[in-house]
Give the backbone structure.
Amino acid sequence: MPLLIDGYNLLRVIQRQETMAGLDEAGLIHILTEYLRRTRNQGQIVFDGIGPPDKTGLSGFSNIEVFFSGSFRDADTFIEEKIQTCSAPRSLVVISSDLRLIAAAKRRKAAAVRSETFWEMVAKLLEKEPPRPEPKEKRQGISQAETQQWLDLFNLDS
């Protein structure tokens, strides 16, 4: 399910924690990128305004797109438009504590998750150790030499 995230709404929730008070847009995106990688999901995050002058830390990710609403509209309006134009709204998850966006999501039968609840899920998942990659042998099988070693060990004929 793709996520549509109200950027500053989520960022302000996170910054209330003393240890996360200095988190900025780029830091949030890096955290979300790891969360999306682990959950094998995609997302879009929308911030108000035009953003920082240097946006190099805010682009180039494969699982999240970053948008700024621009000078003439707010992020909520931008997100509402994205909800309205979504071709599969039932598969969309809107992350915001803004009642206007929650209502817009519900009108289109999209899921809505409050920023506080979402952040708890993210923090809980990221606390866990990342899953280890499967050994290639699991899919490819063992080599001929390893097979022969096992056959020799158990005195079996090949």
User: Anything to note?
Assistant: The chain has a mean pLDDT of 91. The chain has one domain: 3-132. The chain has seven helices and five strands.
